Amino acid sequence: xxxxxxxxxxxxxxLSLWISDVESKNPEAVYEAAIEERIKKHRELKKAVSxxxxxxxxxxxxxxxxxxxxxxxxxxxxxxxxxxEDEAAMVxxxxxxxxxxxxxxxxxxxxxxxxxxxxxxxxxxxxxGEIEKLKREKEEMLAKKxxxxxxIQIRETLDGLSMDADIKALENVRESIEKKxxxxxxxxxxxxxxxxxKLAKIKAKAATASARQELxxxxxxxxxxxxxxxxxxxxxxxxxxxx
Length: 243
Prior knowledge:
With 243 residues, this protein is mainly alpha-helical. Helix content is 95%, strand content 0%. The longest helix is centred in the middle third of the chain and has 74 residues. It is elongated, with a radius of gyration of 54 Å. The termini are far apart.
């Protein structure tokens, strides 16, 4: 191997590494290019399949036309014989034989082309399925890439933090919360010892005592009323007895 051949190989190696690096950094572009290439091939394959289907339909139409003509010729032969038209009968018989042979060939050809058309259509559907599969793979792989990058970033962030700094930050937070709690407790204690609080307690006790006194008075009046009604009832009963 000569010097220039080795140099060319080295250059190809560098170019291949550079392309691989570009592809690894741009996976979405690589997937899009692959999908677009398959879509292009799918259009070409679809065009080829349409040509096969067209040929099948053409042979089918020709076969049906010759079958129709054969039916007409078979109906004309007996009429020609009855009419004594031997020459016409001979021509019709020859035409019948030609149609029989042509129909046989068309049936064989139609069977072959129909099988090719079905295979081509199945291949087209399978190719379409591969394109859809590649699209799903693209979404899944890009999601995996994003997830992996996020995990790496989180790991790098955590690795960059000092554990001592984390502990100190937690201690500061705890101390701040405890101070807030103590401040709230002091406020509650002072509020209970204030003059307003004491007056409020006295007022509440006074209201309770007044309500209780009113209740006792209502009970006393009710008892007196019940006794008066009982006495009146007894007096009425005595009056009835004396009468």
